[in-house]
From TrEMBL:
<dbReference type="InterPro" id="IPR019777">
    <property type="entry name" value="Form_AcTrfase_GR_CS"/>
</dbReference>
<dbReference type="Pfam" id="PF13597">
    <property type="entry name" value="NRDD"/>
</dbReference>
<dbReference type="Pfam" id="PF03477">
    <property type="entry name" value="ATP-cone"/>
</dbReference>
<keyword id="KW-0556">Organic radical</keyword>
<feature type="domain" description="Glycine radical">
    <location>
        <begin position="589"/>
        <end position="714"/>
    </location>
</feature>
<dbReference type="InterPro" id="IPR005144">
    <property type="entry name" value="ATP-cone_dom"/>
</dbReference>
<dbReference type="InterPro" id="IPR012833">
    <property type="entry name" value="NrdD"/>
</dbReference>
<feature type="domain" description="ATP-cone">
    <location>
        <begin position="16"/>
        <end position="99"/>
    </location>
</feature>
<protein>
    <submittedName>
        <fullName>Anaerobic ribonucleoside-triphosphate reductase, nrdD</fullName>
    </submittedName>
</protein>
<keyword id="KW-0067">ATP-binding</keyword>
<keyword id="KW-0547">Nucleotide-binding</keyword>
<dbReference type="InterPro" id="IPR001150">
    <property type="entry name" value="Gly_radical"/>
</dbReference>
<feature type="modified residue" description="Glycine radical">
    <location>
        <position position="687"/>
    </location>
</feature>
């Protein structure tokens, strides 16, 4: 009897559930047995072996993974596959040995001390040469091993295999930390807060307000593991700038009789105060180091304020970024700037704030930031308008029990990312099998995310006073209060991420599937299925599950390396040595910005928990109108758009543009200079900017980056892969 005949006749009752060694129940899946036998070189004998195995199971509806292992081994021996049985046992033993190694702190610390690149280069925003980063890496190395043992074992093993990725394992689950957030600066600056031994009152000037902001950012970044954002910062800081104005106006009345000139004097002084305050904030953020050994990943959202004060804050942010940092006027890496475009406010020449949009365009051509948010589209996609938390993570629209819309003070509880290309590779072109494996892995992600949520609930307000007791999360809890009230009723998000949609399309429809409607519909359905699962989970749990289009420099590499070891070099999939982030267009191809946006625009509807689009351009300094044309085209099509344009600068010969990628690093194409002291080399890496000449951990990957750049020129990688 063939397996097909068996399935049709249902001669045996297939087991329904398998109990893993950690006690979790998962659906029984024939494809897993078929995969094991295929790896043992028994693809042609699979049906006979499985039928013999099922006969041994005696119509059991539930069995343990240990029983399956024992009976499959026995079946192989009975059928004469002695060598294959030994190989199966050896693989099982090697897997267990690998588990023991990965969860042994001593072993991982040894790898760290020997400067294993996979450990010291994992985060492009961390310089592993400095002591505080080394301390964080040491703690994180131990935290990972302990965290793996804390979570369900089958989830931990799936992470190690590369089926999924449990993000930020160096911090969680060992510590019950939250991920990223929108800090409630308005609440904190209005009502005061406490850091350390200092009780801080509400500021009486914009200079003090931005100084307090920098301290809040440093403390929040040290109390969570993700990015933090300041939403609508021009409007938040406006009342404090008006205090400057009132002070200057009162002062002017002592010396100036003309009321009009009094106002002129007060405005002039206030504008200078605003510029100085925003410049100080820029410098303070770039000189901060959190306890994680890195500059806090900070985003400033602005652009909706309409008063002269709010306008001045917006202009100052942009002018300061254009001006650059220090004597050499280098490009600031942080904070990430996100400018909002809104119809009727700044979109068209007749709009009152159109001049600020022009300044934003100029800034993007020279410094890549700001990225832009399209006000109407963000509301449509996420249910309310707000800045992203860090790179691309978005909260959904939410109202409190009084019906008030709340955005700031909310947070994300964590991300687990699904390796989509592996599912496609395992399905071997069988679409039905793809969906079966997909559904199983999605359930696995749900188990991992449930564990993330459960662990965060173990926190108490005293663990992170700045978050829970002093306003960063909006509500102020008392010591010992239940932190879940800040997360439940869908106030917080928790996200399932995905990588490699392009590679999945390639495996089923070939490497030029971008213009194939059937391929487009299939890849869109994948994201929709993730979305639909999140909707169900949200209703079941009371936490807002969302789909996150994962950006990850290290993960696009890690998943691909693991899959190459498993499946070999697969053309246009694993042979590139990297996977494509989220839903992005293949970075080796050269679509126009308009083609790229039209290709990508459908996916965020189902991935509103995290998304961004990028377009790559040549040097735009002399042609800002070209960038504005793309922004205008994108307004009603995408919600969040970033600019990738060459802005490298050689202080030795004066070159401005795109540095050359070589095996030894990036260098000036005119004079060959690659000294970080006399070069400003800035590249966008998965959503944020980085300087590969000043960051040793990125420098260590120059050969890989250079190899990719050869396939992607002109310009650097569109999406940072």
């Amino acid at each position: 009897m063939t397996m097909m005949e068996f399935k049709e006749q249902k001669k045996y009752v297939l087991p329904k559930m398998v109990i893993k060694t950690d006690g979790y129940e998962v659906p029984f899946a024939l494809y897993k047995l078929e995969s094991v036998l295929r790896k043992l070189g028994l693809a042609t004998d699979t049906d006979a072996i499985i039928l013999a195995l099922l006969a041994k199971l005696a119509d059991q509806t539930t069995l343990t993974s240990t029983e399956i292992y024992d009976k499959l081994t026995a079946t192989l021996n009975e059928l004469g596959y002695d060598a294959e049985a030994k190989a199966y046992v050896a693989h099982h033993q090697a897997d267990e040995a690998k588990w023991q190694e990965e969860t042994d702190p001593t072993v991982r610390l040894g790898r760290l001390q020997s400067k294993d690149p996979s450990l010291v280069h994992e985060n492009a925003n961390k310089d592993s040469n400095v002591f505080n980063t080394q301390r964080d890496l040491t703690a994180g190395t131990v935290g990972k091993t302990l965290g793996l043992r804390m979570m369900p074992k089958h989830v931990a093993k799936a992470h190690l295999r590369g089926d999924i990725h449990y993000h930020d394992l160096d911090y969680t689950p060992w510590s019950p930390m939250t991920n990223c957030c929108l800090i409630d600066f308005k609440e904190m600056l209005t009502n005061g807060f406490k850091i350390g031994n200092a009780e801080v009152e509400s500021p009486h000037s914009i200079q003090t307000a931005t100084a307090q902001m920098s301290q809040i950012i440093a403390n929040v970044a040290s109390s969570q593991y993700g990015g933090c954002s300041a939403d609508r910062i021009d409007e938040v800081l406006e009342p404090f700038a008006l205090k400057n104005y009132d002070k200057h106006l009162a002062e002017s009345k002592e010396y100036i009789e003309d009321p009009a000139k009094q106002i002129e004097f007060a405005k002039k002084r206030t504008k200078k105060d605003i510029y100085d305050a925003m410049q100080a904030l820029e410098y303070e953020i770039n000189t901060l180091f959190s306890s994680q050994g890195q500059t806090p990943f900070t985003t400033l959202g602005f652009g909706l304020g309409t008063s002269w004060v709010a306008r001045e804050i917006q202009k100052s942010i942009l002018k300061i970024r254009i001006g650059g940092l220090g004597r050499e006027k280098r490009t600031a890496i942080f904070p990430k700037l996100v400018f909002t475009i809104k119809k009727g406010l700044n979109l068209k020449p007749e709009d009152p704030n159109y001049d600020i949009k022009q300044l934003a365009v100029e800034c993007a051509t020279k410094r890549m930031y700001p990225d832009v948010l399209m006000y109407d589209k963000i509301k449509e996609l996420t249910g309310s308008f707000k800045a992203p938390m860090g790179c691309r993570s978005f909260l959904q629209g939410w109202k409190d029990k009084h019906g008030n819309e709340v955005n700031s003070g909310r947070m994300n509880l964590g991300v687990v990312t699904l390796n989509l290309p592996r599912i496609a590779l395992e399905s071997h072109g069988d679409m039905d099998l793809f969906w079966q494996i997909f559904n199983d892995k999605v359930k696995l992600c749900k188990t991992a995310l449930d564990f993330k949520v459960a662990r965060v609930l173990d926190a108490v307000p005293e663990n992170a006073p700045i978050l829970y007791q002093y306003g960063a999360f909006g509500q102020r809890l008392k010591p010992g209060e239940d932190v879940s009230q800040l997360f439940k009723d869908e106030r917080a998000t928790v996200s399932i991420g995905y990588i490699g949609l392009y590679e999945v399309g390639t495996l089923f429809f070939g490497p030029n599937w971008e213009h194939d409607q059937a391929a487009h519909d299939f890849t869109l359905e994948i994201v929709k299925q993730l979305h639909d699962a999140c909707v169900r989970w949200s209703k079941e749990t009371g936490y807002h599950f969302s789909v996150y289009s994962t950006p990850s420099e290290s993960l696009t590499d890690r998943f691909c390396r693991l899959d190459t070891a498993e499946f070999g070099k697969v053309k246009d999939v694993t042979d590139k040595d990297y996977y494509t982030n989220s839903f992005h267009y293949d970075v080796r191809k050269h679509p126009t910005p308009f083609e790229k946006l039209q290709f990508e625009m459908d996916y965020p509807k189902y991935a509103a928990g995290g998304f961004i689009h990028y377009c790559e351009y040549p040097n735009l300094r002399q042609n800002p109108k070209a960038l504005e044309a793309v922004w205008d085209f994108a307004y009603d099509k995408v919600g969040y758009l970033g600019t990738n344009t060459p802005i490298d600068h050689c202080y030795k010969c004066g070159f401005e543009g795109e540095f050359k990628a070589t095996a030894r690093g990036f260098e000036c194409p005119d004079c060959g200079n690659h000294d970080p002291k006399t070069c400003d080399c800035v590249k966008r890496t998965c959503g944020y900017l980085g300087n590969p000449l000043q960051r040793p951990m990125v420098h260590g990957r120059h050969e890989e980056i250079a190899a990719r750049a050869k396939n992607i020129a002109p310009g650097m990688m569109t999406d940072g892969e």
